[in-house]
Structures are given as C-alpha cells and as structure tokens.
Amino acid sequence: MIELDDVGYSYGGGELLSNLSVRLAPGSFHFLTGPSGAGKTTLLKLCYGALTPTSGTVRAFDADMRGLDRDQMALLRRRIGVVHQDCRFLDHLPLADNIALPLIVSGRDMAQESDNLKELMSWVGLTARADARPPELSGGERQRAALARAVILSPDVVLADEPTGNVDWDMSMRLLTLLVELNKMGKTVLIASHDLALIRAAKSQVQARVLRISNRRLQLAGADL
Amino acid sequence: MLRNVLIGDAQADRVVPPSGFTAQLTLFASGAMAFLAVFALALSLASGRLAERWASELARSATLRITAPEDQVAAQTDAALRVLRQTPGVARARALSQEEQAALLAPWFGPGLDLAALPVPQLIEVMEDELGYDAAGLRLRLAAEVPGAVLDDHTRWRKPLVEAANSLRRLGWISVLLIGGAMAAMITLAANAALAANAQVIEVLRLVGARDSYIAGAFVRRFTLRALIGAGIGVALGLGGVLLLPEASDEGGFLTGLGFRGLGWLWPLLIPVLGALVAFAATWFAARRRLKELS
C-alpha cells in the first residue's frame, strides 16, 4: 500500500531521516512515535507526497511517488486521508463544507453526497456544528472535523499527525475509537503520536505495530510501551 | 477550460475566499479600460470614415482657377470649359457662380461679400469619370489655349489629409491594443496578488486532492467574470459619453461626428467579451505559473 525503501530526508544541510524502510500493509494499524522534532511529521509528509525524499523510494499503491505528475499526485491524495496536527481548514467556509472539501474538489455531485455527509458528521458528533466556521470550533471539534474530512472519500489509508495533541483524555479516547473503527472497516491507519498512554490504550483495542523514530532511524518499538 | 468558465461551478467558486481589493481592482481596471477602449474605437472608426470620405470625394474632383485681366476672364472661362468638355475622362465641368465663390470666402471675409470689389479668380469645378483624365496632358493644352488657367487636382493637399486620417485610425487601433495589454497586466497583477494571498488555501486544496486545473479554474472564473462585469459597465458608460458628443456638422469640421454610425455601434459590444478573454488568459497563465512555483 505505502512502502518506504531506504528513505532519507535532509533539510537545511542536516539529515533528518536516514535509511528508513517500512511497509504499511493493507488493513494494518501503525503508531509512529518518538520525541518532538524526531521527524514524525516529516515521515508522514513523505507518505502522502508533500515532501520528496532526498534518497530512497516512496511507493504508494505500487507507484513511485517521485514519478507522479501533479495531477497524478492529486488523484493519489484522494486515496490517502490525512489528519493534520493543525487541522488546516478553510476559515471562510462553514464546517460542513470543510468536511466535504475532498468531495467538492473531486467533482462529486453534492446533492447525492448529502446523506453521506450528514451521516459522517453524525459519526463524529458534529451535526449541530455544521454551519459553524472553523475559528468558532473547540480543539476537539476541530480534530474530529479533520478526521471526518480525511475519511469522507473513503480512502484506503488514513494518516493522522498528533490527532489528540490538543484535546483532553476523553476526547482522545473518542478520536482513537473512531480511528480503530476505520481500521476495522479495512482502512490502513498510521498515527504519529508521542502520547504513550494513547498508544497503550489503542493496543488494548487493536493489533497495532508501534514504530519509533530515534536518531534519524526507524525502529520497531518493544514491550516497554 | 473556457467551457467550465462559462458554465461555472458554484461549489468550486466557494472554495476560493472572496478577495476584497483584488476584486475591486479587477472590476475598476476592466471598467476603466473598457471606457477608454470605447473612445479609442470611436476615434478609430470616425478617422476611418473621414479618410475614406476625403479620399473618395476629393479624388474625383479638381479645380481650375482662371486668373486673367478682368476683360478676359469670361472668354478664358469659356475656352477652359470648352477644353474640359473635349477632354476624355472629364465627366462634367462648370464655372462656380458669384454666390458660390462668395460662400467659399465667407468663412474668412464674412457674409455679403461683393466679389466685384476684389480681384478674385474664376473657379471651375471639374469632376472626372471612372477612368479619370490625363492631368499632365490637360495642363499642357490649357497652357496653350487658356494662359490664365491653373489646374489644381487636389493631390498636393488631399494626400496628407488622408494620411493624417489613416494615421489617426491606426493610432486608435494601437490604443485599443495597448488598453488591452494594460488591462491584461493589471489583471495579472491582481490575480498574482490573490494567488499569493491564498497560498494556504491552495495548499489545503492540494492536500485534499484538488488538481491544479481545478484550483486555477476557480481563480480564472472569478477574475473573468469580474472583468466581464467591469468591462460591461465601462462600455455602457463609454457609450453614454459617445452619445453626448456633438453630432457631425460642417461647422464643427472633423472634431464632430466622432461617434459610431450604423453597424459601428455593435463594435463596442465586443469589448466586454474581449476583456473577459484577456482576463481569462491573463489569470490562467498567472495561476498556472503560480501553482507551479508553489509545488
């Protein structure tokens, strides 16, 4: 599904990641952990083509990302849902339109998708906030909305960057449950998080592999989690 | 792409936030340019009409001037008319009456001029036929038979007048082209400003799978429609201004009658369409370049 083969990434003259190899198999659930600044977000960006590796190969759905043109990359991103740490909404649009954004840009008939959108908003508990603008939302609402937007096109892969970074424990558990539900639907999930309690909680619900970035390299985390 | 602009996509239009000053700049620039283009077009078309009129009216006529002692004027006039009637290519010739000659001098001497008190030469109006006459041969014959006759075929002063009118026509069209170029430049600047201000929006749209053509289309559609509306308003105001210009008159000379005639009134209606096309091209290229830079 997504495969990193001996990937390295340098920025500003320094090597941030080196010799990373990992394969996100279909239907798998991965956590990516490590200290702040270790390169978790960078690794996620490499997975959805926002960054190009300085060495090695990133393959998504059997295609080398380096060889994709911008149109092909756009199509690829419709198969990879991303929950950004800062959510990244369009502040001039109401929440419902922000969540529906992937549908809108892919040219779907919004009249036909209306029921799906309502169902998804209900799933993340944001039906009552459909007309709110993003700046009016709480941290938890933003994170749930970002998750809803990431999955509205029913992507094969969901990448989440610190999805529980700005929310309390109860909301973290709620978001985690949503991601586990997605995984149970067959979606591949990769969550970047430094929240070990969250990872431990997840391991009780789903069979998750935990990857740790340390000293620019990726390791399979052991039982210390 | 053009089809998409014409059909429109309400959802796509909404994803690009309304951008205040660039919208007003585009509206104002296209309106002002369309307003100016109406006058440049009116000037060009009027100059063209003038050049054609001068060229056709003056090309077929000539003037024969009889300057002779008073007692010989009538005889030389008759002789000249006889020569002209015998000259192939001359359709008709007639001596101007005292009243007609007085009317010609009226702008300088005022009405009621008594020509008998002035040594004014007798003028003969000569109209040529389709084939025209041999001016050099006629001059030689007149020199032999009517010594006081001088043939003026208007070439000397007709040519610079027609050239001046044609130059004005060219300047009018060049002005229209420059106005179009200036409009394209201003809309390009406005589009670039809007694209730069919306870099984060573009990034989000790309992250959720928007193609560049979709993003560019949203901007192009917006700027094209603004240019169309602005140019429409500018043309309406320009046509109003042209309607207020004085009607063509002999007293006003070529400074009057600068408006449109007949089907010429349809020409300004093309300006909003051309303005929209200019905006479309300018925004399309600006958006593609900017999106490439943002890759």
UniProtKB/TrEMBL annotation, chain A:
GO MF annotations in UniProt: ATP binding; ATP hydrolysis activity; transmembrane transporter activity
Keyword field: ATP-binding, Nucleotide-binding
Gene3D superfamilies: P-loop containing nucleotide triphosphate hydrolases
Taxonomic superkingdom: Bacteria
Pfam families in the record: ABC_tran
Claim: Magnesium is one of the keywords in the record: no
Protein name: ATP-binding cassette domain-containing protein
